[in-house]
Design goal:
mainly beta; 124 residues; four-stranded antiparallel β-sheet; seven-stranded mixed β-sheet; 50% strand
């Protein structure tokens, strides 16, 4: 069993920053790929970023490159998404997910465990 819990969402003005956390229980991230996805109102779920736990390699979606940073805390078994220079179009529910294969992927169907999401709202 594995449980993922996201936190850190909230309301922020355009240009501001937030840091999201994804904490895992039941299992570790050691052999997994961790992904962040988001779903904006009226839109499809989209890939945001991913991290291969074993070596720390990362991948970012084009709209967030240079603004978002994914990182890990080995001691606390936690993955973070630092979001800077936020834009109104970043408004969405953000989900943490785990892939059971240690290979970076943008495909949500490769991820088998999902958290409940945390709301991020960016005002103009």
């Amino acid at each position: 069993q594995v449980q993922l819990v996201e936190s850190g969402g909230g309301l922020v003005q355009a240009g501001g920053s937030l840091r999201l956390s994804c904490a895992a229980s039941g299992r570790t991230f050691s052999t997994y790929t961790v992904g962040w996805f988001r779903r904006a109102p009226g839109k499809e779920r989209e890939f945001v970023s991913a991290l291969k736990w074993s070596d720390g390699n990362t991948l970012y979606a084009g709209p967030v490159k240079g603004r978002f940073t994914i990182s890990k805390d080995n001691a606390n078994n936690t993955v973070y998404l630092q979001m800077n220079s936020l834009k109104p179009e970043d408004t969405a529910i953000y989900y943490c997910a785990l892939r059971q294969t240690p290979v970076l992927s943008t495909n949500p169907y490769h991820y088998t465990y999902w958290g409940q999401g945390t709301q991020v709202t960016v005002s103009s």
